[in-house]
Design goal:
By secondary structure, the protein is an all-beta fold. It has two domains: 39 residues, no CATH class; 101 residues, Jelly Rolls. Helix content is 0%, strand content 47%. The protein has no helices and twelve strands. A four-stranded antiparallel beta sheet has the order 5-12-7-10, with no helix packed on it.
């Protein structure tokens, strides 16, 4: 018997750049400002039961126009009681020259907007049916190749 889980971590740090007033060039880049501002980070392992069907991964291309539910057959497909969602912009869709973006909705509420290659969102919903989560890019020049990982504990 095997146990399946998703291990993840995330971190964010404020960045301050000092720019020369003389020639407008960047001189110093610090990981945090002089104010009392620190970064935030953490991670955990999410147990996803004893069968592989409790974890799904998909590479796909985003669409524009209307939102597409994550349970659509071109994305994750049928998946209920979701407790973990991670979506990443891998790159611009082949042939697209603009900056890729991706909006993520839960129900009617936009909960995240990814902008650019490498941008990522981690969500920890409580037993979400993926028909209630959807994605869309803002236009034809913003289409993205994405990666989606979902899990149920």
């Amino acid at each position: 018997m095997a146990n399946f889980s998703i291990q993840y971590s995330a971190s964010a740090s404020p960045i301050e750049e000092l720019v020369s007033a003389v020639d407008n060039t960047k001189k110093v880049r610090m990981s945090h400002s002089g104010a009392a501002v620190e970064g935030v980070g953490g991670g955990i392992e999410v147990a996803c039961n004893t069968t592989a069907t409790f974890i799904k991964y998909k590479k796909a291309d985003s669409v524009t126009g209307s939102y597409v539910a994550l349970n659509h057959s071109s994305l994750i497909g049928t998946f209920t009681d979701c407790h973990f969602i991670m979506i990443k912009i891998k790159e611009s869709k082949t042939g697209v020259v603009g900056t890729p973006d991706l909006s993520i909705k839960i129900g009617t509420q936009e909960v995240s907007k990814l902008i650019g290659k490498g941008d990522v969102c981690i969500l920890r919903p409580n037993s979400l049916n993926l028909s209630g989560a959807s994605i869309s890019s803002s236009g034809a020049n913003a289409l993205a190749s994405i990666e989606i990982l979902v899990g149920r504990d």
